[in-house]
Design brief:
Number of domains: 1
Strand content: 25-35%
Order of helices and strands: HEEEEHEEHHHE
Distance between the termini: 27 Å
Helix content: 40-55%
CATH class: Alpha Beta
Number of helices: 5
Structural class: alpha+beta
Length: 177
């Protein structure tokens, strides 16, 4: 089974509604989280055994906020164990990206899920912070301290939660087509 086929199988198994964008190396789907609705893209490179998932933030950064957003994104990315926040400095598009190389590794559905669900958790966490920097004039250092506190508080709450309940409560696939 190719990586592309594995991603499709994973999305079908987890009941996601998705579209295949031609050429057939890209899969797109919508995602509703607590903080908003996101457009997501899987970019699959079967030839090089690489896969990338990006969740696009549903707002464009204004040029006058680029410096503050770049500082915040650098602060956030420094401590991230999986994935990264990104900003396109040409148009202000912001996204969260997770990726992996599976060269000489037998891939399975759980590996694809391990690419997906941390991405969704992080974009849900960081989207409100990005919006507060853009529209609330919160400085990046203060915003990072707020996010760090949220993470600590969630760690305390999540110790007793069942993983299946967490997934069902936080991730709602939908079709944005």
């Amino acid at each position: 089974m190719t990586l592309f086929e594995l991603v499709v199988e994973t999305l079908k198994t987890d009941d996601w509604s998705f579209s295949i964008v031609e050429p057939a190396e890209t899969i797109t789907f919508g995602l509703t989280l607590d903080s908003g609705q996101f457009r997501c893209y899987f970019f699959v490179d079967d030839e090089n055994d690489c896969i990338q998932l990006v969740s696009i933030v549903p707002a464009m950064a204004p040029r006058e906020k680029f410096a503050a957003l770049c500082e915040f994104i650098c602060r956030a990315n420094y401590a991230l164990p999986i994935g990264s926040l990104e900003i396109d400095l040409t148009d202000g598009e912001m996204r969260y990206k997770t990726s992996m190389s599976l060269h000489d590794v037998p891939a399975n559905i759980n590996m694809i899920r391990n690419l997906m669900y941390p991405n969704f958790t992080m974009v849900d966490l960081y989207f409100p912070a990005l919006m507060k920097i853009i529209y609330g004039d919160v400085d990046p250092e203060t915003m990072m301290a707020i996010v760090d506190q949220q993470l600590e508080d969630e760690d305390d709450e999540d110790e007793d939660e069942d993983d299946d309940d967490f997934l069902n409560d936080h991730f709602s696939p939908h079709d944005l087509n």
